[in-house]
Amino acid sequence: MSPDGPTKPPSAAPLSEPISEQADPHILLDAVSVGYGETVIQRDLSFGVRRGDVFVIMGGSGSGKSTLMRSLIGLLAPQAGRILFDGESFWDALQHERTRRMRRNGVMYQSGALWSSMTLEENVALPLEQYTNLRRSQIHEVAVYKLALVGLSAYCDYYPSEISGGMRKRVGVARAMALDPDILFFDEPSAGLDPLSARLLDDLILELRESLGATMVVVTHDLASIFAIADDSVFLDAATQTMLTTGNPRDLREHCEIKLVRDFLSRGGE
Ligand SMILES: Nc1ncnc2c1ncn2[C@@H]1O[C@H](COP(=O)(O)OP(=O)(O)OP(=O)(O)O)[C@@H](O)[C@H]1O
């Protein structure tokens, strides 16, 4: 195997091997393939996400990051393999168990995905109204609290069109946290943001990890974000349609034996 070639992924090991070094991973992928219909986008994905880590799914455009994300958040069944949360196989579970699990996973979508006709508070309250039996006054309290966590308590009555793109993303984070998830998924959080707003969102992700202790899974190809927030990562490759490596991105930038990964993490300039 050439150290520079995108050949067999060094860490795509069977379940019985190195992944077990991670005691009690929060999320575990075991030989997962994802794609659409007969078309495979990524195959043989085997890695663990440690509890409380910020874990980044990275790779070039079209490598399948969002596709993998869809399988992790319950929108797209994998073509093969297992995805385990707390040791339980998500896609093998009964529908009502899957639904219960999905409620424990918060998702922040790329656009923020807010309802334009609702105030920020109403947007954050929506999952509480849908999935809990809380009284109206309690829902109000929780929604205001979540907006305060993302620094927007003064904007509860604003509409999405009245705030900036960075603030809308924060509302998306507040809504993703509404049901006190123990895993938070972020799809391209910095997309469309200026560098300063993107940096503030990175800071927010780290603050929330500290204060909530949640596990964060982030899809991004923004290098500044990757180095700012990631404890651990997986690199997906479009050409070989599989993962090339896992690890802390700073370590990978310096020491990864695969040139493609080093080039990606240093913008091609070493
Ligand atoms: N609904 C779909 N049906 C069929 N193919 C799809 C669908 N969505 C995405 N694809 C294809 O899957 C491949 C991976 O796309 P995906 O969006 O997962 O990549 P990505 O790494 O997230 O890309 P980017 O960084 O550009 O957002 C692409 O070739 C894309 O055309």
Explain how this protein is built:
The protein has 270 residues and is α/β, with parallel strands linked by helices. It has two domains: 169 residues, P-loop containing nucleotide triphosphate hydrolases (Rossmann fold), CATH 3.40.50; 65 residues, no CATH class. The protein is built from nine helices and ten strands. The strands form two sheets. Strands 6-7-8-3-9-10 form a six-stranded mixed β-sheet. A four-stranded antiparallel β-sheet has the order 2-1-4-5, with helices on one face. A hairpin with a 4-residue loop joins strand 9 and strand 10. Helix 6 runs parallel beside helix 7 and helix 8 packs across helix 9. The longest helix is centred in the C-terminal third of the chain and has 18 residues. The radius of gyration is 19 Å and the shape is globular. The two termini are 22 Å apart. The N terminus is likely disordered. The site of adenosine-5'-triphosphate has 11 residues, from helix 1.
Outline the secondary-structure elements.
Layout: E1 27-36, E2 39-49, E3 54-59, H1 65-72, E4 80-85, E5 88-89, H2 95-103, E6 105-108, H3 120-131, H4 136-149, H5 165-176, E7 183-187, H6 195-212, E8 215-219, H7 223-229, E9 232-237, E10 242-246, H8 249-255, H9 259-265
Parallel strand pairs: 3-8, 3-9, 6-7, 7-8
Antiparallel strand pairs: 1-2, 1-4, 4-5, 9-10
Helix pairs in contact: 3-4, 3-5, 4-5, 6-7, 8-9
The chain binds adenosine-5'-triphosphate.
Adenosine-5'-triphosphate is lined by residues 36, 41, 59, 61-67, 221.
Protein name: Phospholipid/cholesterol/gamma-HCH transport system ATP-binding protein
Keywords: ATP-binding, Nucleotide-binding, Transport
GO molecular function: ATP binding; ATP hydrolysis activity
